[in-house]
Amino acid sequence: MSVPILLVTGFLGAGKTSFVNRLLQAEHGRRIATIVNDFGAINIDAMLIGEADDTVIGLKNGCICCSLQGDLLRTLRQILGRPESFDLIVVEASGVADPAGIVQALMDPVIWQSAALDTIVCVVDAEDAGSRRGDPLWQAQLRQADLVCLSKTEALDAEAAAAVRQLLAAAGKTRVFDAGDPLLPLTAILGQARSSRISCSEPGSISDDRFASLEWDHPGSLPLAGFQAVIGRLSPSLLRVKGFLRLDEHGDRTLVFQMAGQRATLAPAGTVQAAGCRLVLIGERDSFDPAAARDMLDAAARGSLAP
Ligand SMILES: Nc1nc2c(ncn2[C@@H]2O[C@H](COP(=O)(O)OP(=O)(O)OP(=O)(O)O)[C@@H](O)[C@H]2O)c(=O)[nH]1
């Protein structure tokens, strides 16, 4: 019998990993294998999800919609070749992925017999939807979705929430659920594919060349004020920052730093222990300069960031 694949897509920082984590932790009695793609060279999402499940495989340093299509198929073959059987395979795309390229890869006739794409969920950041609506990648991700999962709805008033739903409806998306809905059963998510899936198998038209990323590894800690100063200076050119931090002020505790849209958070890393700092910073290639960002972070770590 063929194992269903649930593909989770959505823009950088939309809330895909949070959605997948909730899915893995819910009581549905299914054995789930998860493939997580991070655009950067550090598989932070797999580490964050790895806390919850030991059947998580990370694909990093590229995008499964284009440069890593072959790795995606190889990983699926590995999962299907394991002695234990799975009831579901969840594939979390990177935030820069055009789902059309992933659908095309999954149409591989041999894989399809054993693991067939079931449903595509696009996670949409409700706070960000209005400003992101003209973005061709955001539109491509939405277009391919069978279901939309709205994240970050809790701070929206009724009028703003209605405006987001209207925007989605105008894009033909009426099957919309709230990411935080604790009652949403997996059975309501699966089996939602449009009958026209086959027509979506054209190659993806959006390339990840548009984005540049920096992977910053630092063996020690750095001062909070220096780190805040760097993030503050770079923030106009950044779309996403995530990773593990050690701060001088927090001794040997590992912290998770997340920046998506206008929000930045710093929280304890749970069971993940990083020896130093491991950060991924992503921005548009024409405005984000990874080399300059690296110099600034190095200077902050040395305590010599220019004022
Ligand atoms: N307030 C709020 N924050 C959320 C929600 N969903 C996700 N976040 C936060 O948004 C940030 C990004 O969430 P992720 O789940 O890592 O987003 P992602 O789409 O996997 O990110 P990339 O894989 O880097 O593209 C994190 O700080 C999350 O805690 C939500 O529903 N409400």
Automatic annotation (TrEMBL):
Pfam families: cobW, CobW_C. Belongs to the SIMIBI class G3E GTPase family. ZNG1 subfamily. Gene3D superfamilies: CobW-like, C-terminal domain, P-loop containing nucleotide triphosphate hydrolases. It comes from Hoeflea marina. The keyword Nucleotidyltransferase does not apply. One of its GO terms (molecular function) is nucleotide binding. CDD domains: CobW-like. The keyword Zinc does not apply. It comes from the Bacteria. Residues 211-301 form the CobW C-terminal domain. Keywords: Chaperone, Hydrolase, Nucleotide-binding. This is G3E family GTPase. GO terms for cellular component: cytoplasm. Zinc chaperone that directly transfers zinc cofactor to target proteins, thereby activating them. Zinc is transferred from the CXCC motif in the GTPase domain to the zinc binding site in target proteins in a process requiring GTP hydrolysis. It catalyses: GTP + H2O = GDP + phosphate + H(+).
